[in-house]
């Protein structure tokens, strides 16, 4: 699909599929076009060219049927805080028009909110509100669940819990889950495949399995003396594989085993290692193919 506004092309000929039972990550730096893409998928804006199919239905020509297959949450879900969780679900079920009380019970159990569903939403934690928002999105039995920044604002425990829940939804319910996120490490742990968007184009679609199999991390050392440390690193990756930043920082791409060997040799060479920072494999891939653009 493509989107042009005025003389500016925001999205250029992007194509991807999200499969049943998988979690698909959608990553991109600021201004890459992630939000525009989501708005086109859910029919809020029309693509300038190209087609979007959801559950076999063309969003442009068969909008109602296509949207019956979609559940969507953009960042924090919009909920009525003065109402209970159950009342919120009843309200949204009435808007859909064909959702039974049995279905409401089902989604409450799916998101494991049984114990708190009759409490007012204003008493919920952010993680609980996210779960209730997902329950709301599941009411119509969608085939595609779109989550925009689902872990935004959550603490580490909440992030882990939501990640496991999303994986469970895809595996047990057979949902296709589309996750837009800036949290690279979380995407690597949560997703089956990842699309990286840069400058309005998808520059890479790959499986997380393939990323992990490659096993290379971007490693940064804050170390002195830098010339001695650089010589040690060059023995492992060659002169072209080592980059010096400032007077004490060295950067190279290494496997986990290579990193352990280098650390040992740096100590043997009498170097002072002040810190070692290892970026995950997805982050290394992202920086490599986007030229170091900032994720957002």
From TrEMBL:
<comment type="similarity">
    <text>Belongs to the ABC transporter superfamily.</text>
</comment>
<keyword id="KW-0067">ATP-binding</keyword>
<dbReference type="Pfam" id="PF00005">
    <property type="entry name" value="ABC_tran"/>
</dbReference>
<keyword id="KW-0547">Nucleotide-binding</keyword>
<keyword id="KW-0813">Transport</keyword>
<protein>
    <submittedName>
        <fullName>ABC transporter ATP-binding protein</fullName>
    </submittedName>
</protein>
<dbReference type="InterPro" id="IPR003439">
    <property type="entry name" value="ABC_transporter-like_ATP-bd"/>
</dbReference>
<feature type="domain" description="ABC transporter">
    <location>
        <begin position="1"/>
        <end position="224"/>
    </location>
</feature>
<dbReference type="GO" id="GO:0005524">
    <property type="term" value="F:ATP binding"/>
</dbReference>
<dbReference type="InterPro" id="IPR003593">
    <property type="entry name" value="AAA+_ATPase"/>
</dbReference>
<dbReference type="InterPro" id="IPR017871">
    <property type="entry name" value="ABC_transporter-like_CS"/>
</dbReference>
<dbReference type="InterPro" id="IPR027417">
    <property type="entry name" value="P-loop_NTPase"/>
</dbReference>
């Amino acid at each position: 699909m493509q989107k042009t506004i005025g003389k500016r092309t925001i999205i250029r000929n992007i194509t991807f599929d999200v499969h049943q039972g998988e979690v698909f990550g959608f990553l991109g730096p600021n201004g890459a076009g992630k939000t525009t893409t989501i708005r086109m998928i859910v029919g809020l804006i029309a693509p300038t060219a190209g087609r979007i199919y959801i559950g076999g239905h063309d969003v442009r020509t068969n909008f109602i049927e296509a949207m019956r297959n979609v559940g969507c949450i953009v960042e924090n879900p919009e909920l009525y805080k003065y109402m209970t969780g159950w009342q919120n679900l009843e309200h949204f079920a009435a808007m859909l028009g064909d959702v039974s009380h049995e279905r409401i019970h089902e989604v409450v159990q799916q998101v494991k909110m049984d114990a708190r569903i009759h409490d007012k939403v204003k008493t919920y934690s952010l993680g609980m509100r996210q779960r209730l928002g997902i329950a709301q999105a599941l009411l119509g039995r969608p085939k595609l669940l779109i989550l925009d920044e689902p872990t935004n604002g959550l603490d580490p425990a909440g992030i882990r819990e939501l990640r496991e829940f999303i994986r469970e939804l895809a595996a047990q319910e057979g949902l296709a889950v589309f996750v837009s996120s800036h949290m690279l490490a979380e995407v690597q742990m949560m997703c089956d495949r990842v699309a990286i968007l840069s400058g309005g184009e998808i520059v890479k679609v790959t499986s997380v399995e393939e990323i992990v199999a490659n096993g290379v991390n971007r490693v940064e050392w804050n170390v002195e003396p830098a010339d001695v440390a650089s010589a040690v690193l060059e023995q492992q990756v060659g002169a072209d594989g080592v980059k010096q930043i400032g007077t004490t920082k060295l950067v190279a791409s290494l496997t986990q085993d290579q990193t352990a060997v280098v650390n040992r040799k740096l100590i043997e060479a009498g170097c002072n290692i002040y810190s070692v920072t290892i970026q995950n494999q997805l982050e290394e891939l992202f920086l490599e193919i986007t030229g170091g653009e900032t994720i957002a």
